Amino acid sequence: MPSDTVLLIAFDGSDTSRHALERAAALFPGAKAVIATVWEPTPVLSAPGALGTIDPLDIESQERVDKAVSTTAQRVVDEGVEAANAAGLVAEGRVTEDAPTWHGIVSLGDEVNADVVVVGSRGHGGLRSALLGSVSQGVVHHAHRPVLVIRDEEHKPPKK
């Protein structure tokens, strides 16, 4: 049975994002789901050094890398849409380029007026999270709508 609930589900093709999608489908059966894959543009690499400045990637190379990443992102979102539909959601896909990734997710949540933004969490904590950042933390701290963070099964604490 279709639902009026609109979910934005962040999906990067990882087991963690698949688990989050499946849990969201179980919690919100029949909901409309926008499956979102966000990719970050390639940074232009340049660094001063003892031998002078290292030339940045030429524009053509950068464009080829960005095209390859964009193509992969589309393939990933298509897989997510297929998985969401198979899990009982009414899904469509969106691919967007934004940096940082959490910003793209928050922006898409606002754009589609999501009732809930769903993100997976790999459970990185402490130093690793501080150094690498966390997409789920960024979404939680910056979203203006409810966020459901679903922990990866591998990182669940053992039952007592």
Automatic annotation (TrEMBL):
Q: Superkingdom of this entry's organism?
A: Bacteria
Q: Which intervals hold domain UspA?
A: 7-151
Pfam families for the chain: Usp (PF00582)
Protein family according to the UniProt entry: Belongs to the universal stress protein A family.
Q: Could you tell me what this protein is called?
A: Universal stress protein
Q: Which organism is it from?
A: Svornostia abyssi
The record lists the lineage as: Bacteria, Bacillati, Actinomycetota, Thermoleophilia, Solirubrobacterales
